[in-house]
């Protein structure tokens, strides 16, 4: 039995540990005008890679999705309401000093819908081992860690604590590296040392190439799968690559989608992919569900799925 692939208690809960932030999404067309005004449509939305993954997992069928995150008192109640409305069971630690993290998303409304992020991590990366309890794993089939946790000392210590606790209970652990820029700054070798304890790695195409130094995403995914049993590399409109035991064994196409806003598309993929694994799907099938969710995500504004009550 492959560690992290068919292991796990099907039908149990998915626990996500990660960032909860406020997204300020500014949609503009064409290049930004330096030194003057650029017309934009601006909205404030709930976000954060960890929170987005949890919401998409719930939206795509995981009946019990839990989230551990840290927020500021300024918006704790709002974030909790939004998560509960999305079908997630949040455990939000209210930071006594820091405000909720904020990300300004600059979205070019041209054909590519490219986005640029300005990030203030705020309380989100102030998670610490004291926020963890092994009881959080009760009834959990899979644990997912947001890669952003690795980029501060305290939240990295929490991630290490959670990973050790999950391995002691034979709960498979997945991680999304989160950002090629942060990875390059923190150090590839340090990341790979942490990744040795994982069961599933869900990098973007760029992150996979950065982590291996290989220019071809398929070669990069294959190499990473010698370190982590299951690697699923997200490639946007080109779908996804599923790699195990040092080789790519599936290339999964993505549905055609006219992009409106690519913010959170990778989180949508990861959430749907994990929901399918929890339900017992094989990796290829789970990746296909992830691709469908990613296509749904780029058709709408913000990083969260639609809600039945019409909110979000």
From TrEMBL:
Keywords: Kinase, Transferase. Residues 297-312 have a biased composition (Basic and acidic residues). Residues 14-306 form the Carbohydrate kinase PfkB domain. InterPro entries: Carboh/pur_kinase_PfkB_CS, PfkB_dom, Ribokinase-like. It comes from the Bacteria. SUPFAM superfamilies: Ribokinase-like. Transmembrane segments: none annotated. GO terms for molecular function: kinase activity. This is PfkB family carbohydrate kinase. Residues 291-312 are annotated as: Disordered. It comes from Streptomyces pyxinicus.
